[in-house]
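We modelled the chain as a single entity of 571 amino acids. Its sequence is:
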Amino acid sequence: MTTTQTKTNRRGRPTKAEAAIKNQASWSYDPRANTERPDLSGRFPKIAVYKRISMLVDESVTFERQHMEVMQFLKNAYGLDPESGNCTITVFEEEGSAYKNLKRPAFDAMIDAIAAGEYTHLASYEIERLFRNTNVSGRVTPVLERSGITICVKQLGTKIDLASFEGKMQWQLFALMAEKSSKDTSDRQSGSMIIRAGYGVKRGGYDPLGLKTVKSTDTGLSGERSVFAVDDDPFYANGWSKAQLVREIFRRVSEGHSCSSVMTWLNANNFPLPQGGEFWSSGHVKRIVTNPIYVGVGVHKKQPNIDPKTGEWKVTHEPLVDRALFDKVGLLVEGRKRKVKASVYSTPLSGLLYCSDCGHRLYNHTAQSRNNRYRAFRCNTVSLDNTRCSGVLINAEGLEETIYDLTMKILANPALAKKLTDRIAAVEVSAPTAQEVELINRVSELRSRAATESDAEMAKMFSEKAAEKEAELSQLRNRAELSQRFAKSLSLAEADVFERVWNEVDKTNAQIALQGLYSRILISKSQAKYNWKTMRARGWKTDLNRITLAFQDGTVMPLVDFLAEKVEKAA
């Protein structure tokens, strides 16, 4: 007898596939199942009471309070009291958020039991205890409706009958209100966290390596707060403190050692990981040397705190390393980033193809058809519930020829060219893109640092990095300008230009030309069989019904409608 060994990664954690299966809810809704609602009015009342403490609400809504008030509500409103023997109670309780799609074992077990017909009533302190996400409520509602269960909510003071239209509408309205309440609570918590980070107050979690938590009343906030301080207490076998180890890591990286070589040194000298683990990785080292918290700056969601008056980083606690060393290490780490190699084949459709089903970009893919391998474009998107997209796949060579023939046909046809230029002319000068804004801010920051840096070597490094970013910004702007210029100068003569750039080995110019004409090209999954003989007789290599064009003015039109010609379906 053979047994299958559970696959885990090298740290003993579950694989992504195992984690996805584990986080799936055990209950599900099958629309093909019998939808007849059973009559439970004659059965002995069996009540499932669900209690939950959220991570985002105050501590006043305890398990005890929820239980006491739900029991009192059932007794006063419906005369149901387990002590009198006229009903039975089963309690399901757990801690955790009901907004995120996390696995809730008690909730899943309760829904499974309700679907199996084990209970006649479901009672809760408020709807927010059950769920705070309309996605979850939308999947639970059909299960509850089909089970015939009676829902009793203490805060509403009434029952909800999902058998009636009014009950369903009321249920959905309360679900939306619950999600709105959850988002408002989350926003308040996030705002509070940002304020605390601005004053250098610790919000929870582990202490960063080399820092420790101390109590302080001098934070600018009321009361005693937890703040960070340098941890110089001896900790390791060689007598070093955690702060000394962090300084040594910074020193080694600043002298030219890579994060991988520092990782090797740490593992060879048996320095334990801060929160446990088997060995150091280069990612551990990189996260340390790029964390602004070591220069005394508070960090919230990986973003350093900015002083609104000066626009500079706001120092809120004792720094472990100085800013000059931190900047130098940051530039060295950024300069060691692996350069992305150009793909073996560069397609002129790069950046234009999107899936019409999920809206995500299509990627190059090598497909297999019997004994033949061919290039294709495919949507590999995985949704939040770990299901893939519908599987859009299209032959790359055929699509490229189709788009080329389409563009040449537009450039050679005055009527089609006018239809396209009218849409392009309607587009106003666009604001800088997010990528441009990011590069502009980065260049400004590097130039400012170079001007104020006293160390000549550091100032030179800042200037060189700023020049690199300016070159990227210039290339990005030139690309956009060329694309716009080509799009707004369509004429019969442009067909020769487009043909020349299309046949170039470097497809950059062809990409620029296409991005000036079309905003996006949407590809759908083939849904029907078409008369390929008729279509190929017209000179097309791809099913035109699968292609939708998105133009620069925001309009979207199927390709066959733009060309004013339909492809006949096969009989």
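As a brief sanity check on the tokenised model: The first helix runs from residue 16 to 22. Confidence is low (pLDDT under 50) at residues 1-11, 565-571.
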